[in-house]
Amino acid sequence: MAPNVAIMGATGAVGSEFLKILEQRDFPLASLKVLASSRSAGKTLPFRGDELTVEELGEDSFDGVDLVLSSAGGSLSKKFAPIAVAAGAVVVDNTSAFRMDPETPLVIPEVNADDVSTHKGIIANPNCSTIIMNVPVWPLHKVNPIRRIVVSTYQAASGAGAAAMQELRDGAKAFLTGEPFEPQALPHPAAFNVFCHDSEVGEDGYNLEERKMWRETRKIFHCEDIAVTATCVRVPVLRAHSEAINLEFAEPITEQQVCDILAAARGVKIVDDRTSSHFPMPIEASERDEILVGRIRQDVSRPDGRGIDLFVSGDQIRKGAALNAVQIAELL
Ligand code: A2P
Known about the structure:
This protein is of the alpha/beta class. The protein folds into two domains: 4-126 and 321-331, NAD(P)-binding Rossmann-like Domain (Rossmann fold); 130-316, Dihydrodipicolinate Reductase, domain 2. It contains nine helices and 14 strands. The strands form two sheets. The chain has a seven-stranded mixed sheet, sandwiched between helices. Helix 1 packs across helix 9 (318-331) and helix 4 (128-143) crosses helix 9 (318-331). The radius of gyration is 20 Å and the shape is globular. The chain starts with a strand and ends with a helix. The relative contact order is 0.15. It binds adenosine-2'-5'-diphosphate.
């Protein structure tokens, strides 16, 4: 039977992508409710040739709802996901609210689809940088266990929401015309700049995004041994994240073996043309489902053959958020 679905945060960057993906994948729906703040109540959103009217999120929003796709921020998920579950819905939550809760599965369908069956009402969608890294890293790890990952991210404004994307556009215009510009959604000017990811920096010097990358990877891989160190920064890109990934394997592995494994991997597209210097770029990863992988090369600093370098780009709003959540819903 087709489910009654509600989208929490339907007017946001990820929320609007949910609508697009449900439409593109012809997701079976008995009904679709679009929920946002009182600021958006009454607005309409186009869907399958119709207009859906946005309703204000409230405690009674989930009566008769079977599935909630949630992306309105962690504190709202903490409050409303249990209410939705009590009303009989399953919640696929795109925020960090439940990701590390031992009762909540954290799922990338290409990696640990089976974990979906352990849910108790909530399934968490991993952090976007974690998804984009692990779609290509998992198939390599399965063949030759990875001991350590060193990753540097190049993260788009989209990860901070629709307001940050608009701020990048406005900031770029202001920069080019010499106008003064005060950022609001991000802590620093995004245009023509690079800065430490806008999440809290802990006493150990790691920001929260960097911590998510190692904690979530261990949980998704069911592997507490894997060591991950990350440096996460924002770059002036609108919607796809890129990452430089250095992998240390348990056993020697060749560049050709890595290419062969990735060529057969789900959710990955190899873009690795050395002759024309054509490698993954956020501009080409945007609006695509696959993670683009290239710059595949032996790490010359490891003469034992156990090191590989990669560069990847993936659409943060799509596979990094909305698409992954809809794929989880499809598994349900
Ligand atoms: P609204 O557009 O009405 O503010 P983004 O991640 O792009 O910033 O989007 C956040 C989403 O969460 C938007 O849909 C936003 O709705 C929604 N949201 C933010 N605050 C609330 C709230 N207090 N109640 C319900 N929805 C909210």
